[in-house]
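Q: what sequence does this backbone want?
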C-alpha cells in the first residue's frame, strides 16, 4: 500500500480499514464535507447514521455532528489517499466525517475553492455561499453605502438595498475609490444629463422631498438620468463626490460639507465651498471661466437672480470684474446650472459655459454628471 509522505495525512486519518467488499472505510475527526448533501438525518446517534448511509445506494460518506446528534449523508467522497483532503473537507470540531464507500471518479468531491454553490446542512451552516449581508435583500437594508462597506470590507460596486423613506430603494453604491474623491462607500444620489432640462437650476426636483426620477436607473452608472430618495434620505452628508463624464472619461472632485444635513437641506440656502478654480476646471477638460472673481458652493447665484445671469445648484460662477456679484457673470461650471447672459446656453444644465472673458475662451460644453454622497 502506497501512502504519500504528507504530514496532514497522519493528522487526518484517524482510522482506515477495508470491509469484506473491498471498500475502504475511514474517519476524519473535526472535519466535514460541505456541498454534497443527499439527505439530512435529525436526532440520530452515530450508529443510526451509519445504517442510513449504508442503506442508501447514493450515499458515499456522511458528516456526523457530535453536539447536535444529527448527520448529513453525502453523495460524494474523497480519494482516501488524497493529499488535498484538507482543501476539500472543512474544519469544524463538532463534526466527524466518515467515508463508507469508495467513490467512483464522478463521485469525487471538488476542492472547496472550486465549488460555486452548496446545500445548507441541517445545522443551517453554509460556508460556500455566505448568507446575505446587510444591503443584499429588502429585509436587511442599510442606511447608506458607507455603512455596508464598514461591515463588509470586500463589498463590490453595485446596487444595494437602502432604507429610504417611504420605501426601500435599490441604489448603486461605489465601494471602491473614486479617483479625486477618495475611498469607497459612496451612495448615488443623482445623474444629470447636461443636454436635458430636467435638472436645470429652477427645476423643482432640487427643492422637493417627494419627487424622484427613474429610480430603476439608479442601480448603475449608465448614462440615464435619475433622482433617488437618497437626495433627502441620507440625513447626514459629510462629503460629496461630483463627477463629469465627457468624451468617455469621468473626472471627479470631492467637496466637504459641514452642514450636518441632507443634500436636499443643503439646497435651502447658499453654502460656500473652498476648491480653487483649477480643481473645478479639472472636472471638464478644456473648460473656461472668468477668474477675476469667483463664487462657488451650493445654490450659487447672483444677487440680481431674476436675471439671466449664471446660476448653479453646485458649482462655480466666474465674474469679469473684481466686485463679484455686482458685475455680470458670463461663465459657470457645475451641476443644475442656468443663465443666458452674454450668449451662454441657458439650457446647459450640467457642464461649462463661458463667454466674453473666459480664461480659455468661449466655451459651451455639456457633460453627464454624477453626484454621490458619503
Ligand atoms: C425655468 O426657466 C426656464 C427659462 O430659463 C423656463 O422656460 C422654465 O419654465 C422654468 N421652469 C420652472 C419650473 O420655473
Ligand atoms: C475634507 O475632509 C477630509 C477628511 O475629513 C480631509 O482629509 C480633507 O483634507 C478635506 N478636504 C478639504 C478640501 O477640506
Ligand atoms: C448633526 O445632526 C444630528 C441629528 O440631526 C445631531 O444629533 C448632531 O448633534 C449634529 N452634529 C453636529 C456636529 O452638529
Ligand atoms: C488648487 O488646489 C490644489 C489642491 O489643494 C493644489 O494642488 C493646486 O496647486 C491649487 N492650484 C492653484 C492654482 O492654486
Ligand atoms: C477646446 O475647445 C475648442 C472650442 O470648442 C476646440 O476648438 C479645441 O479643439 C478644444 N481643445 C481640446 C484640447 O479639446
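A:
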Amino acid at each position: 500500500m502506497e501512502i504519500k509522505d504528507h504530514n496532514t495525512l497522519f493528522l487526518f486519518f484517524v482510522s482506515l480499514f477495508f470491509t469484506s467488499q473491498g471498500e475502504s472505510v475511514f474517519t476524519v475527526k473535526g472535519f466535514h464535507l460541505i456541498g454534497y448533501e443527499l439527505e439530512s438525518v435529525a436526532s440520530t446517534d452515530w450508529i443510526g447514521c451509519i445504517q442510513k448511509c449504508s442503506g442508501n445506494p447514493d450515499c458515499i460518506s456522511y458528516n456526523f455532528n457530535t453536539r447536535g446528534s444529527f448527520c448529513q449523508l453525502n453523495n460524494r467522497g474523497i480519494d482516501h489517499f488524497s493529499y488535498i483532503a484538507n482543501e476539500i473537507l472543512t474544519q469544524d470540531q463538532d463534526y466527524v466525517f466518515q467515508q463508507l464507500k469508495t467513490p467512483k471518479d464522478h463521485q469525487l468531491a471538488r476542492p472547496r475553492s472550486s465549488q460555486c454553490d452548496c446545500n445548507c446542512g441541517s445545522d443551517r451552516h453554509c460556508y460556500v455561499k455566505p448568507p446575505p449581508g446587510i444591503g443584499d435583500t429588502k429585509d436587511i437594508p442599510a442606511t447608506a453605502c458607507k455603512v455596508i462597506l464598514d461591515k463588509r470590507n470586500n463589498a463590490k460596486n453595485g446596487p444595494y438595498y437602502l432604507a429610504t423613506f417611504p420605501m426601500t430603494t435599490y441604489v448603486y453604491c461605489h465601494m471602491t475609490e473614486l479617483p479625486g474623491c477618495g475611498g469607497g462607500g459612496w451612495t448615488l444620489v443623482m445623474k444629470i444629463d447636461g443636454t436635458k432640462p430636467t435638472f436645470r437650476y429652477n427645476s423643482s426636483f432640487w427643492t422637493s422631498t417627494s419627487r424622484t426620477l427613474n429610480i430603476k436607473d439608479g442601480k448603475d452608472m449608465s448614462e440615464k438620468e435619475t433622482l433617488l430618495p437618497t437626495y433627502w434620505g441620507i440625513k447626514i452628508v459629510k462629503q460629496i463626490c461630483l463627477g463629469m463624464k465627457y468624451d468617455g472619461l469621468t473626472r471627479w472632485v470631492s467637496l466637504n460639507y459641514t452642514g450636518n444635513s441632507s443634500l436636499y437641506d443643503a439646497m435651502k440656502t447658499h453654502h460656500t465651498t473652498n476648491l480653487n478654480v483649477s480643481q473645478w476646471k479639472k472636472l471638464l477638460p478644456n473648460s473656461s471661466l472668468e477668474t477675476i472673481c469667483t463664487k462657488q458652493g451650493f445654490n450659487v447665484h447672483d444677487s440680481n437672480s431674476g436675471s439671466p445671469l449664471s446660476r448653479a445648484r453646485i458649482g462655480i460662477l466666474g465674474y469679469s470684474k473684481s466686485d463679484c456679484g455686482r458685475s455680470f457673470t458670463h461663465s459657470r461650471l457645475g451641476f443644475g446650472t442656468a443663465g443666458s447672459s452674454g450668449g451662454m446656453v441657458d439650457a446647459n444644465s450640467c457642464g461649462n459655459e463661458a463667454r466674453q472673458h473666459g480664461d480659455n475662451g468661449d466655451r459651451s460644453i455639456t457633460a453627464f454628471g454624477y453626484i454621490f454622497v458619503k
